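To assess whether ligand presence alters the predicted conformation, the chain was also submitted together with guanosine-5'-diphosphate. Input:
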Amino acid sequence: MLEKTLSIIKPDGVSRNLVGSVITRVEAAGLKILAMKMIHMTQEQAKGFYKVHEGKPFYESVTGFMSSGACVVMVLQGEDGIQRYRTLMGATDHKKADPGTIRHDFATDIEKNVVHGSDSPANAEYEINYFFNALEMVNE
Ligand code: GDP
């Protein structure tokens, strides 16, 4: 099934000049970019984005990190796009990620793990609508 997913290149990825490397892997995997922009969130905006994690021990820390610098947010589309992009990213903890995945190859920390990708159709819809309106997204 053709699916859309929300991808973020997190502040560690942007500050370490990994934007091009991540996008190269996305395109090489055959995922299409339907929307893309740079943003710098406030911590309140990051808390809204990560509201599924409210109450978890790392909630303050991860939302502080996500608002610490610029991010690149993208809407990606492809067959089985949500899972395919999750596979490209690798496990949350880079030490457990498979070789060749973005997190295995670039992440430095369980929190500073370079990229975000939606984990379900419902979360993808929430996350895409959190950052983009219809005028900012191509229809392919
Ligand atoms: P993801 O879907 O693979 O990004 O993982 P989760 O949804 O479980 O967590 C969201 C984000 O919170 C992760 O990508 C990390 O940046 C961060 N995170 C997850 N687990 C931990 C943790 O145990 N400690 C800290 N500091 N951050 C974490």
